[in-house]
Design goal:
α1 packs across α2. This protein has 9 helices and 6 strands, in the order βαααααβαβαβαββα. The protein has a 6-stranded parallel β-sheet, with helices on both faces. It is elongated. Helices cover 47% and strands 12% of the residues.
Length: 230
């Protein structure tokens, strides 16, 4: 490998994210329990989120709007203003959640700093992701922060052009096989999967990934066994 850039996903790779969304979903289901079962409410919310991805993209603000829309659908537009207000409050609380770094993240960044160009390559709302990275205290480790509308092959190809590197010089680390691994392998880069204990349904895949440029590690610090030997 002739690596120049090491890219890190942010949510559930550098710091905790998905469990916070699941907490809010539980609150939403409790709020709407008079209309549907917990499972039915979760399914309707997820369906609305996916339908809205092309309009809102990824992130908390789109999630808030999808909760409100789902509540209106489920209630046949009879939902009270009080419930809508509570949904907005849940969303604001989500935007202000404390940053909880995952084990080994800062140790890994310290070890790689100065040896490679480190960047963040993540999805979501620009302002929210910039805020989380700032509050995490990790910002000074990164040369570049890329908040992507999506993580398809074309999005990574555009990123590589901006970085002025080849795919063979790019190494991606993340918790999502769908977003962080498959598209990077597809364009000829290297990828490592660091599983998180919970994954958003939309990010799950049904097949096993096997590729010469791919590895899975349980802990993020294990990437050092590769990257400090190169």
């Amino acid at each position: 490998m002739n690596l120049k850039v090491i890219a890190f996903d942010a949510d559930d790779t550098l710091f905790v994210n998905e469990p916070y969304f699941q907490e809010v979903e539980q609150k939403f289901c409790a709020l709407m329990q008079d209309y549907l079962s917990h499972q039915g409410l979760s399914q309707e919310l997820f369906k609305t989120e996916i339908e809205n991805l092309d309009l809102y993209g990824y992130g908390i603000k789109g999630y808030i709007l999808s909760m409100i829309e789902a509540a209106m659908k489920i209630s046949n537009n009879t939902i009270s203003l009080e419930i809508i207000e509570k949904i907005i409050i849940y969303g604001k609380e989500l935007l202000q959640k404390p940053i909880e770094l995952l084990d080994g993240v800062e140790e890994t960044l310290k070890a790689l700093s100065g040896k490679y160009k480190l960047i963040v390559a993540t999805k979501g709302d620009l302002k929210d992701q910039q805020s989380k990275l700032h509050r995490s205290g990790l910002g000074h480790y990164f040369h570049h922060i890329e908040v992507m509308a999506d993580k398809q092959e074309i999005n990574y190809e555009k990123l590589l052009k901006r970085l002025e590197i080849e795919a063979s010089e790019f190494f991606m680390i993340g918790n999502s096989l769908k977003s962080d691994v498959l598209p990077v392998l597809g364009i000829g880069g290297y990828a490592v999967h660091i599983p998180f204990h919970t994954t958003w349904e939309h990010e799950k895949i049904s097949h096993k990934v096997e590729h010469a440029n791919f590895k899975t590690f349980e802990k993020i610090t294990e990437v050092l066994s590769i990257l400090l030997k190169v």
